[in-house]
Design goal:
By secondary structure, this protein is an alpha+beta fold. It has helices spanning 12-16, 85-92, 130-156, 162-165, 172-184, 190-196, 198-204, 238-257, 265-274, 279-291, and strands at 7-9, 20-22, 32-34, 40-41, 43-50, 54-55, 64-71, 74-81, 98-110, 116-127, 263-264, 295-299, 302-305. The strands form 3 sheets. Strands 5-7-8-10-9 form a 5-stranded mixed barrel.
Length: 306
């Protein structure tokens, strides 16, 4: 039985700058969003002020809601749909902006222009008082600074073993994330990110006044991709192309009949299964079509032609 992924304590700013993914392989394999600041995130915990949720899409049978969580470092979208009924109900529960703690899956969506948009697919939402919000924010900042110290230590001593780095109780998952952060984001100004945390420190101290103007502009993140010799992927067979054709035919039928122009993934998988295309093969066909840019999933559980 697979262990549940831990929820990384992160700020909105860290999520905003996380543009690299590590996709899992195989059935139900976890995927990760990699940050420049040594987090390897499947699930995250964030805190801040959560805005009133608004419905997205026009299909009333498949509700999907979006809110926005703002902390002293930035803001990130928080979503929940019919696959997260409890979280969706919690998002809809507040008519006004309130402090909250959100736990959910980190999700990166790239538009047709290639720009990445990070959001959190909520698993749980809890509205809290300002005292508890500041306490949780303090824990987030402490862990963030600890991770920054670790990634800088790894940069100074790249040959130091994982066992040595973890000798003082540093989780192995942090060490792995630090090494991957340096590989994926070699040119990030991590010291500037420390300065970005100053408004969070003022919030923790109870200073709710407007922050002073920044002395320097916020850091930008430049992604330098390290060339990796990827194994050549064989071209799809004629049988696989036929399965993709079946998949697309049903996608088009469902999308044309829907009110919002999207094909519901659950309904689509049920239809193609009845045509002799079971779950694992259907998922494989979908993965190929997404990688080739034929199909996209702009909303959780909703597909359309790209």
């Amino acid at each position: 039985m697979a262990l549940r992924e831990p929820a990384w304590r992160v700020t909105a700013r860290e999520l905003e700058t996380s543009l690299e993914e590590e996709k899992g392989e195989g059935d139900r394999a976890a995927s990760y969003l990699l940050s420049p600041f040594a987090a390897r995130m499947n699930r995250v915990l964030v805190t801040g002020t959560l805005s009133p949720a608004e419905p997205i899409g026009r299909d009333e049978t498949q509700p999907f809601w979006r809110s926005r969580l703002t902390d002293p470092t930035g803001a990130v979208a928080v979503t929940a749909g019919s696959f997260q009924p409890r979280a969706m109900a919690q998002l809809r529960a507040s008519p006004a902006s309130r402090p909250a703690i959100v736990v959910g899956k980190a999700h990166l969506y790239r538009g047709r222009d290639g720009v990445g948009y990070v959001s959190v697919r909520a698993e749980g939402v809890r509205f809290v008082g300002e005292t508890e919000e500041r306490s949780v924010l303090a824990d987030i900042v402490r862990q963030t600074l600890d991770r920054l110290d670790l990634v800088e230590r790894v940069a100074r001593e790249p040959d130091r073993s994982d066992d040595s780095l973890g000798a003082q109780g540093t989780p192995r998952s942090w060490v792995r994330a630090a090494r991957e952060s340096l590989r994926r984001y070699p040119n990030v100004d991590r010291e500037a990110f420390r300065r970005d945390l100053r408004p969070a420190l003022r919030r923790i101290a109870g200073d709710s006044g407007p922050p002073p103007p920044p002395a320097v502009p916020p850091p930008s993140v430049t992604v330098t991709r390290v060339p990796v010799a990827a194994p050549a992927r064989p071209a799809p067979t004629a049988a696989e192309r036929a399965e993709e054709s079946v998949f697309l035919d049903h996608l088009d039928e469902i999308a044309e009949a829907s009110a919002d122009g999207y094909a519901d993934l659950k309904e689509l998988l049920a239809r193609v299964a009845s045509e002799g295309l079971p779950g694992e093969r259907a998922e494989a066909a979908l993965n190929r079509l997404e990688e080739e840019g034929v199909v996209e999933e702009p909303i959780v559980g909703k597909l359309r032609r790209a």
